[in-house]
Design brief:
Blueprint (H helix, E strand, L loop, with lengths): L8 H4 L10 E6 L2 E7 L4 E7 L4 H5 L8 E3 L9
Antiparallel strand pairs: 1-2, 2-3, 3-4
Length: 77
C-alpha cells in the first residue's frame, strides 16, 4: 500500500497499533452476525455470518449499522 501525503508518518498511522476491537457472534431475529459491542444493548454490525442470501439484501443488517437487542439467557433457574 502506498500513501502519498504531506502529513508525517506518525500522524497518519498514529494509534494504528492501539486499535483492538472486541467482536462477538450474535443471532438477532434468526440472523447470525459478528458485532462490535457498543454498550449493554447496542452493537455495530461488522459482518454477517448467515447462509440466507436474503439477509444480505436487508439494509437493516448492513455492516456498520447499529442494532439494539435485549440479552437473553438460556436455561431454567
Amino acid at each position: 500500500m502506498t500513501i502519498y501525503s504531506i502529513m508525517p508518518e506518525e500522524t497518519v498511522f498514529g494509534g494504528w497499533d492501539d486499535f483492538n476491537p472486541q467482536y462477538m457472534d450474535l443471532t438477532v431475529n434468526g440472523v447470525q452476525m459478528q458485532v462490535e459491542m457498543l454498550n449493554g444493548t447496542q452493537a455495530r454490525i461488522v459482518r454477517l455470518l448467515s447462509n440466507n442470501c436474503y439477509d444480505y439484501l436487508n439494509p437493516t443488517y448492513s455492516p456498520g449499522s447499529v442494532i439494539e437487542f435485549a440479552p437473553q439467557f438460556g436455561g431454567n433457574i
